[in-house]
Amino acid sequence: MNIAFIAHDRKKDEMVNFVIAYEQVFKDHMLYSTGTTGKRIMEQTELQVQRFMSGPLGGDQQIGALVAKDEMDLIIFLRDPLMAQPHEPDITALLRLCDVQGIPVATNVATAELLTNALARGEFGWRELVHKYKPGEWQA
């Protein structure tokens, strides 16, 4: 599974703590992240993370490009709802792409925990079907 981590500045500590708690779940997957978030995750875990640019510099859009190509399976995006973000249009575009492509997105730790536990239980098999069949090829 391809999993992306994104965290706004005031949520980076929360993200790192979350990833530490679920490091054993994430270790068998391809991990991606925006710049600083990925750096901090790698500094505090043994996980390898492919880092993109910082969010405001285009990292959200780089992850969005993978979403648009249906090459991302799960995004954990800890957003700070109490602080305006200068790149809000990029964030909105990324979330819209996830809705279009049917990519699960957690925007807070509670939802991230639910999705991560489902991942640990192997309940993301439906993503394999998405990759196997193109739109319009589903049969009832």
From TrEMBL:
Keywords: Lyase. Its EC number is 4.2.3.3. One of its GO terms (biological process) is methylglyoxal biosynthetic process. Residues 1-140 form the MGS-like domain. InterPro entries: Methylgl_synth (IPR004363), Methylglyoxal_synth_AS (IPR018148), MGS-like_dom (IPR011607), MGS-like_dom_sf (IPR036914). GO terms for molecular function: methylglyoxal synthase activity. Substrate binds at residues 8, 12, 34-37, 54-55, 87. It catalyses: dihydroxyacetone phosphate = methylglyoxal + phosphate. One of its GO terms (cellular component) is cytosol. The active site is at residue 60. PROSITE patterns: METHYLGLYOXAL_SYNTH (PS01335), MGS (PS51855). Catalyzes the formation of methylglyoxal from dihydroxyacetone phosphate. Belongs to the methylglyoxal synthase family. This is Methylglyoxal synthase. The gene is mgsA.
